[in-house]
Design a protein that fits this description.
By secondary structure, the protein is an alpha+beta fold. 64% of the residues lie in helices and 9% in strands.
Length: 457
């Protein structure tokens, strides 16, 4: 029974962290079922697999130890394939993103296996030869200590940046980072094989554990650098976009101030002209002059759409551009001050409006943008419908009511992304939701955004 318990705990400690970590980077909306239910199921399945493994290798004659290695490796392979199958079926997302996460977890699993075995054989002088089955008390303790040290580092330096990376990165960036990660993994395993073949440094060698530990920490740092740098570039890009929009708004205010100054000068001129006409009793001329003034002073550029300064400013800016390009716009906005970061609101709403404007530019014939904004209890609801001739959709995504997540819309043939991931990422920060729908028959694209607004305390 003691051997069974050691095998059970050893294999479970080795397996469970990797199985759980492979699901951790994805946001909750990417799961096909409730995340807590998935974690409960995979934990239960991991326990069952560990029990099967323990039963297979615990109650055998120790002289047949090579058979333990074959049996255990087969069970490990089956557990990896089972995890991979469940992972692909239970998590939505592009295949390249799933492979990215899987390769990272596979790296940790292999590094854990080689490092722990090397440390065990260094401490116990290879007392069980070159085979670590069945598990002993020493193996269980070392696996527990190894995970206690490296697992928090793995979650902090890789899982957390990877989670944000998945949420905000665009498809072309993901392809680039995937290629870099793949190359770094190839180099990682090449170095291990090179040292093994050139210096005979195997798992049982005294110097193999320090070598593996340093190499593993180095690879973790490489992953951290890749994902963290990608997230930093995206944040900088969003910040630049926010600053550019604010700069445009500032320039618009300066132009309006200059326009107001000119208007005051013109008004004085008009007053003098009208006074002169009145003095000469040229009433018909005064009527015609006033009519012409009314026609020329109709200006919709300074139209106030809502009381929220950020939303109103963005609407003024983008709708002015749209009308200059002969794009029809309708706006219904009822929104005041809301407890959302101005930078987040600028990036999210600015991306949505810019996406609508770019879609209309690619269309022929009549083009339009319809915008509705309002408060529903403690939620800000935004709906933008615009003309759209075509989009590239990943058909593997299941849609609810015709709406799909940001990941379903891949890069266009011109290499430009739709900028939807940033919108979804911002909505997620406020415990909200985002849906996108393309109606091929009506040639329209719709964006729906809901943000939960916490009232000011």
């Amino acid at each position: 029974m003691t051997i069974f318990l050691y095998n059970f705990l050893g294999f479970l400690i080795q397996l469970l962290p990797c199985v759980i970590m492979i699901f951790m980077p994805f946001p909750k909306e990417d799961y096909r079922f409730k995340r807590s239910n998935i974690f409960t199921c995979i934990t239960a399945v991991s326990v069952i697999i560990a029990a099967i493994f323990s039963s297979a290798v615990s109650f055998r004659d120790l002289e047949k130890s090579p058979q333990y290695s074959v049996i255990s490796n087969l069970i490990m392979l089956c557990s990896i394939l089972l995890t991979l199958t469940a992972y692909i079926l239970l998590v939505r997302g592009s295949l390249i993103v799933k492979l990215q996460v899987f390769f990272v977890m596979l790296f940790y699993a292999i590094a854990e296996y080689l490092s722990v075995n090397a440390l065990y054989f260094t401490i116990f002088k290879g007392s069980h030869g070159a085979i670590n089955y069945p598990y002993t008390e020493g193996f269980v303790v070392i696996y527990a200590l190894y995970n206690a040290v490296l697992l928090p580092i793995m979650i902090l330096l890789i899982i957390n940046p990877l989670r944000e990376y998945i949420c905000i990165s665009e498809p072309e960036n993901i392809k680039r980072e995937f290629a870099i990660c793949t190359i770094s993994m190839i180099v990682y395993f090449t170095v291990i094989i090179f040292y093994d073949t050139s210096y005979g440094m195997t798992v049982g060698s005294t110097g193999f554990f320090p070598f593996m530990f340093v190499l593993t920490i180095n690879q973790i740092f490489i992953f951290w650098l890749i994902f963290n740098e990608s997230v930093r570039r995206k944040r900088d890009s969003d910040k630049r976009q926010s600053i550019e929009i604010q700069q445009l708004q500032y320039e618009k205010i300066v132009r309006e101030m200059e326009s107001t100054r000119r208007m005051r000068h013109d008004i004085r001129h008009h007053y003098n002209t009208l006074a002169d006409m009145l003095e000469k009793r040229q009433l018909d001329d005064m009527e015609q002059y006033l009519s012409s003034l009314i026609d020329t002073t109709v200006d919709r550029e300074n139209e106030v759409y809502c009381k929220n300064l950020i939303i109103n400013g963005l609407l003024q800016y983008y709708i002015a551009i749209a009308r200059e390009e002969d794009i029809s716009c309708t706006v219904h906005a009822v929104c005041g001050d809301i407890n959302i970061s101005p930078a987040d609101l600028t990036v999210m709403f600015g991306n949505a409006l810019e996406n609508a404007l770019l879609s209309c530019r690619r269309c022929l014939g009549k083009r339009r943008i319809d915008i509705s904004i309002g408060m529903i209890q403690n939620s800000l609801a935004i709906e933008i419908s615009n003309s759209c001739s075509e989009v590239s959709i990943d058909r593997r995504y299941q849609t609810e009511g015709g709406f799909a997540p940001a990941e379903a819309f891949i890069s266009s043939h011109k290499g430009k992304s739709y900028g939807l991931r940033s919108i979804a990422h911002t909505a997620l920060k406020y415990d909200g939701s985002v849906g996108f729908r393309f109606n091929e028959e009506k040639q329209t694209f719709m964006t729906r955004i809901r943000l939960n607004i916490q009232p000011d305390k």
